[in-house]
Amino acid sequence: MSARDKIVVMDPTGYPPRISPRRMAPRLDTLDGKTVYIMDTRFDDSEILLGEMHAWFQEHMPQVNAVFVRKAGVYTQDDPALFEEIRQKADAVIVGVGH
User: Fold this and answer.
1) Nearest by Cα to 25 from 36, 41, 13
2) Which of 34, 58, 73, 91 could form a disulfide with 77 if both were Cys (CB 3.0 to 4.6 A apart)?
């Protein structure tokens, strides 16, 4: 290729989607007697970290109903059935990605 040849370079980043910010849920006064879902998003090795977190709750906070769940599909896909279960049954949810 000579110095006179041109190379066309495309920018693959595209345009990010518009987002609508949302406020965080209000903090609970206590976790005693509450149901806390610990949701594995199936990101690399996240089940190891979140399994340890679940075991910690069972050992150190037995008054909390800690429920370990894994969402269907890969971490980039929604799981409407699980999300609805969490809306109906959980007082709080911990969503983790591992590493």
Assistant:
1) 36
2) 73
In a domain, 1, yes or no: no
Give the whole-number percent of the chain exceeding pLDDT 70: 96
Beta-carbon contacts of 73 under 8 Å, excluding residues fewer than 6 positions away, are: 42, 79
* Structural domain span for residue 76: 35-96
**Amino acid, res. 61:** M
Which of 62, 64, 69 lies closest to 95 in space, CA to CA?
69
pLDDT tens string 25-51:
889 999 999 999 999 998 888 889 999
State the total domains in the chain: 1
CA distance 28 to 49: 23
